[in-house]
Write a structure and sequence with these properties.
It is a single chain. 69% of the residues lie in helices and 2% in strands. The chain has helices at 2-32, 44-72, 78-105, 139-157, 167-190, 195-199, 207-225, 241-259, 268-294, 301-315, 324-349, 357-375, 390-423, 429-434, 436-441; strands spanning 108-109, 114-115, 128-130, 136-138. The strands form two sheets. It has a two-stranded antiparallel sheet with strand order 1-2. Strands 3-4 form a two-stranded antiparallel sheet. A hairpin with a 5-residue loop joins strand 3 and strand 4. Helix 4 (139-157) packs parallel to helix 7, helix 10 (301-315) packs across helix 11 and helix 10 (301-315) crosses helix 12.
């Protein structure tokens, strides 16, 4: 009995001493073991947000932009306008996965263009794309998100060209323009090796890449295409402001994917972009109608729609680069300036930008790009750290605006001349008279 007791006691003491030594043993083992960092993986929440944002941008194109532009045309050209938008959007998606993504965001590159990953070579479901933190998203999702930007940018250009351009010419123009205008500018502004990215230009969601690019291209192309027959002596009012307002609403909702999605994460930066997309747009919509009243007109539905788009355009580069009250001022200023440009400057110059693609997207984009350099400053409620002064940042922004204008203009001239050489560019006088719905597509919007 005593022997058993002593045995149990000895075993217990040995166990206690072994247990006491365990931390030291484990520590020694940990010191000796090689450190292995966990492999990066997709962040589920960020990935889900970016997939949602991608679909929101698609909604901006179809049906948003198609209804917005379509309602502004005459009824005989409603379907042709929508078909052109749908056609170039689909073309942009295919070109993007074939070589556009490689030209804009390829692994190798210089200041103006990149290369690699053509036809998505090397991209798999396991491939990751960087965000603005250590979190990762699926590269396929990043590719899809950026693909929708290419699609809507080329579609925006068509606002200046509707009601008189052949569908075949539209498709040729879109293919060439995407290749030599959009893909390089996207690389210069958003890729790490890009000229304007390295210069420190601020463009959160596409003020230069999308709006200045599309607006300037629309203006240049409209000069080459010529005016619509009867413009400006014949009345050419929108045939359905109801559809235009529906399109405006869809664009505003989809723009949250455009702006907040450009944070690449579901974080505070996305939240800032979200509230700015609300308040800048609301300010612009009201200020356009207020300007109409001051100028002796009634506040109109068309004015409200135009103001909403002007505000969305202006806040795009500033979405994550401004405080909410800076965004409100930016939206108001852009709305007033765009109003005077489309109602005073455009008639005096006499060019036929059918749906004011340049007057709103081009001018609004320039105001937004330059205004971002101001509202970014921490003293004005912006998220900047003050390391770059306002004057210096404005100089950088002006440099980016000038580069975008020149590049877009030259690229558009080349694209429109190629389209003219291959297709003849404009429809015949008879087709323009009866409407492009019947003449180009053999159908009517309304039977």
């Amino acid at each position: 009995m005593k022997f058993g007791t002593r045995t149990v006691g000895a075993i217990g003491a040995a166990g206690i001493s072994l247990f006491a030594a365990l931390p030291a043993w484990a520590q020694d083992t940990a010191l000796q073991a090689p450190e292995t960092a966990a492999a990066p993986v997709v962040h589920p929440g960020d990935n889900a947000w970016m997939m949602t944002s991608t679909l929101l941008v698609l909604m901006m194109i179809l049906p948003g932009l198609a209804l917005f532009y379509g309602g502004l045309t005459r009824s005989k050209n409603m379907l042709s306008t929508m078909t052109q938008i749908g056609g170039v959007a689909c073309l942009a998606m295919l070109l993007w996965v074939m070589y556009g993504y490689g030209l804009a965001f390829g692994p190798e590159g210089n200041d103006f263009i990149s290369w690699g990953k053509f036809f998505l070579s090397g991209v798999t479901p396991a491939s990751l794309a960087d965000t603005f933190s250590d979190d990762k998203i699926s590269e396929y999702v990043f590719i899809s998100f950026q693909m929708t930007f290419a699609a809507i940018t080329v579609a925006l250009v068509l606002g200046a060209l509707v009601e008189r351009m052949k569908f075949s010419a539209v498709m040729v123009f879109a293919a060439v323009w995407l290749t030599i205008a959009y893909f390089p500018i996207a690389h210069m502004v958003w890729a790490g090796s890009g000229l304007l990215f390295k210069a420190g230009a601020l463009d959160f969601a596409g003020g230069t890449v999308v709006h200045i690019n599309a607006g300037v291209s629309a203006l240049v192309a409209s000069f080459f295409l010529g005016k619509r027959r009867g413009y400006p002596t014949e009345p050419m009012p929108p045939h359905s402001l109801t559809l235009t307002m529906v399109g405006t609403g869809l664009l505003w909702v989809g723009w949250f994917g455009f702006n907040a999605g450009s944070a690449l994460q579901a974080d505070g930066s996305a939240g800032l972009a979200m509230i700015n997309t609300f308040v800048a747009t609301a300010s612009a919509g009201l200020f356009w109608m207020l300007t109409e009243r001051v100028m002796g007109h009634k506040g109109s539905a068309l004015g409200w729609c135009s103001g909403i788009i002007a505000g969305l355009v202006a806040v795009t580069p500033a979405a994550g680069n401004s405080g909410p009250f800076g965004a409100i001022i930016l939206g108001a200023v852009a709305s007033v300036v765009c109003f005077f440009f489309v109602s005073v400057v455009k008639p005096k110059l006499g060019y036929d930008d059918s749906l004011d693609a340049f007057g709103i997207h081009g001018i609004g984009g320039m105001i937004g790009a330059m205004g971002t350099g101001i509202v970014y400053q921490p003293g004005l409620g912006g998220p900047g750290d003050g390391s770059v002064g306002m004057g210096a940042q404005l100089g950088i922004q002006l440099y980016a605006v000038i580069v975008a204008i020149v590049w877009a203009a030259v690229g558009t001239v080349i694209a429109i001349l190629v389209a003219k050489a291959l297709t003849g560019l404009r429809v015949s006088q008879e087709v323009e008279q009866e409407g492009l719905d019947l003449g180009e597509h053999g159908e009517r919007a309304y039977n």
